[in-house]
Amino acid sequence: MFNLNKEFLTKPLLNTTITIQKMIFASIIVLCFFSIVSPPIALLLGILVAQFIGHPFLHLNNKAVQFLLKLSVVGLGFGMNASSALKAGKDGFLFTIFSIVLTFLLGYIVSKLLKTERKTSFLISGGTAICGGSAIAAISPAIKADEKQISVALGTIFILNSIALFIFPFIGQLMDLNASQFGLWCAIAIHDTSSVVGAASKFGAEALEVATTVKLARALWIIPISLVATLIFKNKDSKVKIPYFIGLFIVAMLANSYIPFVNDFSIYITTVAKIGLTITLFLIGGGLSPKVLSSVGIKPLLLGVTLWIFISVISLWVITSMY
Predict the structure, then answer these.
(1) Structural domain boundaries of the chain?
(2) Cα–Cα–Cα angle for 208, 84, 77, rounded to 5 degrees
(3) Do the beta carbons of residue 288 and residue 146 sit within 8 Å?
(4) Exposure string over 148-182, b if 16+ CB within 10 A, otherwise e
(5) What is the distance between the terminal CA atoms of the chain, rounded to a whole angstrom?
(6) Is 78 helix (H, G, I), strand (E, B) or coil?
(7) Whole-prediction pTM value?
(8) Distance between CA 213 and CA 15 in Å, rounded?
(9) pLDDT tens digit string along 45-87?
(10) Rounded distance, CA 139 to CA 116, Å?
């Protein structure tokens, strides 16, 4: 009888709490439609919600992030010029190859020194070298990574990715980087596309164009890296996930550059895309629950920090010296 009464008392309280969570969550998403909430603020709000209120739709978060991110990136393509983007891609091509190889090599060495788990280390290296969570999601089936290994790698990357969104614009201004330099640095040294775009947008349209183009060109390396991973981990049955949304981004960019009437609507499409990106960053922050943060562990985090600092410093030195 006591148990029934206890359930009778606690159930309405639980329902009320969930309702409040949903109301707060929905209210912040609505705020993301207005300029008052910038991408870094959206990410910070998401982190605060995750720590103190709780994500009411956590089971749907990953799918929502992936869908919104891809849609937003394609939308941003309508605001870019093909000629400028091609030049940015060519300028960053050799630099991209060099940084990817160097990151994986350093990741192997540091993981041996720290004695971190092999598959987790490879995922963290891939997320740092290519494009954060997207690379981890693509590589994990190729090496048959389990749920814990994927969670640790994603947690490590998202924590550092969140920090980068706040500190990169500050460092860029401190070092007086121009728009092109800052955009290239973001594309090379920030893990996830969402934070690359969020940080680069603080430096204007040129930085955003360079950052997005170089980052998406970098993301294509998911395909060869996944194929190499199947050989290293001897997994012949794996299927490589091809990032098809990059093709749609290129189509959008070409349409904006060479079809006159598309250009008339591009400003509206890119505005919606930026709102979508802001919401995406809020959802990413909302996914950084205490459980995710505590699951990372000191050694994987130390590996991620070492790789991130190394690639950030080296790329910044090369960019300021050569570009």
Answers:
(1) 32-322
(2) 55
(3) no
(4) ebbbbbbbbbbbbbbebbeebbeebeeeebebbbb
(5) 75
(6) coil
(7) 0.81
(8) 46
(9) 998 998 888 888 888 888 888 888 888 888 888 888 877 777 7
(10) 18
